[in-house]
Amino acid sequence: MGIIAWIIIGLLAGVIAKLLVPGKDPGGIIVTILIGIVGGLLGGFLGKVIFGVDSIDGFFDLSTWIAAVAGSVIVLLVYRLVTGRGRARA
Question: Full-prediction pTM beyond 0.70?
Answer without folding.
Answer: yes
